[in-house]
């Protein structure tokens, strides 16, 4: 038997479900649940502000991640309720930590696609890539501005040159190019 106390509101059934569907240990799960609820409202859900604060605590070394967490909120909020519940958090976070690379890329594509039209446009790639660069404290090296470089990356990803990047173009290009992947896919 685990010595860790199970928080009230967390049932043994829920624990079993998450243990079966994630790579987490029982201890990690209970710890995440406790941390999550420290930031949650009485309804046990996070709104965008609380979500950003929660992530800042979770990733205290990535102080500049705020813009990215804000942009990623809707992708965690699968049912589009405006709140993230623990289940939504665990499903996405587990996928990002333990999922295969293709599933992770598909998830990240949804963050890039801010307006949900199933494609990344030039503006979206600028906003998200800059937020990731900021979070990772990276700059793109060279004489050009980051804007110009990101624009070049956009063109690399846009195989059929129709000025938008589909999920397939994004995933395939990132799978085949470590440089693009390191740049465009955050480590959460
Ligand atoms: Ca939700
Ligand atoms: Ca879009
Ligand atoms: Ca295209």
Provide structural commentary.
Keywords: Calcium, Lipoprotein, Metal-binding, Myristate, Repeat. GO terms for molecular function: calcium ion binding. Pfam families: EF-hand_5 (PF13202), EF-hand_7 (PF13499). This is EF-hand domain-containing protein. Belongs to the recoverin family. The chain has 188 residues and is mostly helical. The chain folds into two domains: 87 residues, Orthogonal Bundle (Recoverin, domain 1); 84 residues, Recoverin, domain 1. Helix content is 61%, strand content 4%. The strands form two sheets. A two-stranded antiparallel sheet has the order 1-2. The chain is elongated and about 55 Å long. The two termini are 31 Å apart. The relative contact order is 0.10. One calcium ion binds next to β4.
| Small molecules (ligands, ions, cofactors) in the structure | calcium ion
Alpha carbon gap, first and last residue? 31 Å
* Mean pLDDT over all positions: 91
Radius of gyration: 18 Å
**H-E order:** HHEHHEHHEHHEHH
Structural class of the helix and strand makeup?
Answer: mainly alpha
How much of the residues is beta strand, in percent?
under 5%
The CATH architecture of the largest domain would be: Orthogonal Bundle
Which stretches of 5+ consecutive residues score pLDDT under 50?
none
